Amino acid sequence: HNFLDIVKNYIHSPGNEKKFTSNSRYDFIIVGAGSSGSVLANRLSENKKWRILLLEAGYMPNFLNRIPLFVGYFQLTGYNWGYNVEPQKNACLGMVNHQCSWPRGRGLGGTSILNYMIHTRGNKFDYDKWTSLGNVGWSYADVLPYFKKSERFNVPGIKNSSYHNENGYLCVEHVPYHTKLATTFLNAGQELGYKIVDYNGQDQKGFSYIQVNMGHGKRCTGATAYLEQINRPNLEIITGARVTKILIDADKRAYGVEYIKDTVWKKVICSKEVLLSAGTIDSAKLLMLSGIGPKEHLEELNIPVIQDSKVGYSMYEHVGFLGLTFMVNQSESLLQSRLLFDPNVFLEYLLYKRGPISIPGGAEALAFISTKYAPDERPDVELLFVSGSLHSDNGQVLKRALRLSEDLYDTVYKPIEEQDAWSIWPIVQYPRSVGRLMLRSKDPFEPPKMDPNFFSHPADIEIILEGIKHAINISKTKAFQAYGSRLHDLKIPGCKQFEFASDDYWRCAIKHLPSMMNHEIGTAKMGARTDTYAVVDPQLRVYGIKALRVVDASIMPTMPIGHVNAGIYMIGEKAADMIKESWKSEL
Ligand SMILES: Cc1cc2nc3c(=O)[nH]c(=O)nc-3n(C[C@H](O)[C@H](O)[C@H](O)COP(=O)(O)OP(=O)(O)OC[C@H]3O[C@@H](n4cnc5c(N)ncnc54)[C@H](O)[C@@H]3O)c2cc1C
Q: Which residue of 15, 182, 272, 363 could cross-link 27, Cys pair, CB 3.0 to 4.6 Å?
């Protein structure tokens, strides 16, 4: 044992008798200062009479976190919980041990400190569907005011639209710099007959530069937006505080939580509600550790069952394909070595917060399109445009963050290091494969078991395959041919038996190199009382338990189209209003 092991054992040893200290009273306790928890803490502390406690396991990230180009690096630090999915049968075959990583942010701001900042609200039919499933109050007309309330919108040309607002906390802007390749992507879209759209406005379908959570070239997180800008004596934030259990009394009422900070165990009590915002993985885990979950599963682990509930079921993720690389004959893509050795690039960012360093890890533009499989008018594929590829950092960050196997990287990507290329990630928008999250043991320090069952439904692969075909058509436009765009055709090891670019080759390639979008949702699904899989009601109250709500991505009953974070801020804003309404006699 080295010293760290000893410290770890001391903290984590389940045999250690817990000696609890301190015990102040709050009105509300919020667990997790991520995208949703930050909103809740801000909005609830607007009421000066309430005392709010926000507990966060991680710490405040340093200033480097705000530099968009470095987004990938933070996944390799302690600001990531470092989760991996269970070994997959049909996916992640090109990753070490067939396990894709599932990064989650640990720190003030939560996963919004690791994410690519892409701000998309989803399609209006997504929310109308939530209502039709029995979630009264969640139609598009109901949620639009909260999307607007959250944002400080500053995109020239779309600013005065009735879909946007300039006075919220969360910055929404365009990246202040675009490569010529990103502009070419938009031109290619128009050449193919698509419109350039504000995908957060009237029409989602079409092409656009990404709208991002960035203010003047710097990342905005849940914490920088909602916590840093306020200073209220009635809001207490404790970092480095890891919650291990929700305290629930004999009347099935949540009255506090148990947490550990600096090896000291604490219990803290509140008079009104416990609000879980620990994210799709950790909120579900905390519910189960506290006795709320599937009866047999909890009994197997000797956890006393307080409420039998389908926690951990209905877990969905957006998956796409990482391996579509197009080589170009001009020096226009983002190559890490070129950027790192160009002092002008640094100076431009330092002085003006502009230039290539303001691009979030190469993601620049996107398109929402419908393939022949789309069952309704919602787009069923997103094409995410990246002005680089998996080799553009010479294997230093992405390869490790994504757990790419040495064999795959060395065969397909090493030979093109230092060469210019762009890529498109085609992403299936309403995935059919459904996963499940379970506890591995009753030890709160052990990561849960996450099996997303990727591609267990064959439609997901077929839709991505259609997306690949659309992406290849884009590369053949006049706009992209001006750069001599050409598909990189080194075969993925494991797919060598198939003819390159045949449908079967792509099916095999998708299974080897899926892109995780890290949009996992649904483990504490919201639904009507008649929905046996629902964990929370449309007011986000946990069925069967009093004074406990879940307010984060885990309550989403179906996947919104695009990226999920804008929807999570919306959930935080809406939940805060619902909570204020519940306690309005006190306001
Ligand atoms: C690499 C990556 C890229 C992404 N890119 C995008 C993107 O471009 N656009 C987009 O819309 N979405 C993106 N996402 C997803 C999006 O950022 C997340 O879905 C969103 O931030 C989740 O918000 P949340 O409030 O549900 O949870 P989180 O933000 O994860 O917050 C949970 C918080 O709870 C804390 N916590 C957990 N357990 C405990 C405990 N036991 N005790 C105390 N605190 C605890 C965590 O440390 C964390 O701070 C990306 C995600 C990743 C990982």
A: 272
